[in-house]
Amino acid sequence: MAKDKESIDDQPWYIKERQMRQMGEDLGVDYNDYRSGGRGTGWSDQENYQRFEDDVIAAGKDNYSMRRSIEAAKLSGYKGAEDLDNGLNSLQSIQDANDFMKGIHENELGHTGKFSSINDRANVANFFVNHDRNQFRDEMQKSFSNYIEENQPEAADTANQQAKAIEFSPELQAAHARINEYEKGTNSTNGVYDKSLDGETPSITGEGGDQRDQAAQNFADAYKLELSTKIKQNR
Question: Is the overall model pTM greater than 0.70, yes or no?
């Protein structure tokens, strides 16, 4: 129930009746159907009056747009929603929810006419559902950004530590060094890695080039295999 607001049940009977009639009109419950003499006549008995009140409450409870609006407004933390009852079990809770939705109808959606049609309530419910989804999306994006910011340095440090922890065999280290030498054109070993015909610089495309290429490929394959094995072992 809204705070600092006199309950409808505490109002004089004629004010309560007027408010019930307005709620009934908004919810499709015509108070004239409950008067024995029809439109313009008085109440025939207390039973009909009570039946009208009960039917107004039932109409509010059964109104999907009203229930959905309250739910979405509360979930999204919309200002004022915290004062609404979770259930629509009384004239007061229905009136509070109806007034709350009417405020959105006029102030947020810009409508100036009556707030009584099915479409009016559906539009307000849609407003609150979208508001809730937008709030949820923003919170998820913020949480994800915070997680990345907090954990990314740790993940990078872990990867660096794992890389440092990998130790290659002396043979593979020597092979790696030799490949680097050939890439720089400074290798000076003999055999299949003989110097070029001028006796000065390594032969890359001259005599024995195919053998050198194959040897380099063999070293590269071995290096990749051991690197892959070490990485898997350190996971």
Answer: no
What pairs with residue 195 in β-bridges?
202
56 touches 64 (CB < 8 A): no
What is the Cα–Cα distance from 62 to 29, expressed in whole angstroms? 12
Are the C-beta atoms of residues 38 and 69 closer than 8 Å to each other? no
SS3 38: coil
The per-residue pLDDT for range 150-202, each reduced to its tens digit, is: 776 665 566 566 655 566 677 777 776 776 776 666 544 444 444 444 455 45
Q: Which two tokens stand for residue 172?
A: 């593979």
- Taking alpha carbons only, the member of 129, 155, 114, 26 closest to residue 74 is 129
Provide the residue count of the chain: 235
Looking at the DSSP bridge assignments, the partners of residue 202 are: 195
pLDDT band at 124 (very low <50, low <70, confident <90, very high): very high
> DSSP string covering 111-144, please?
--S-S-SHHHHHHHHHHHHHHHHHHHHHHHHHHH
HSE-up (13 A, CA, CB side) for residue 134: 9
The two tokens of residue 106 are 């006029």
Q: Which position has the token pair 């990485």?
A: 231
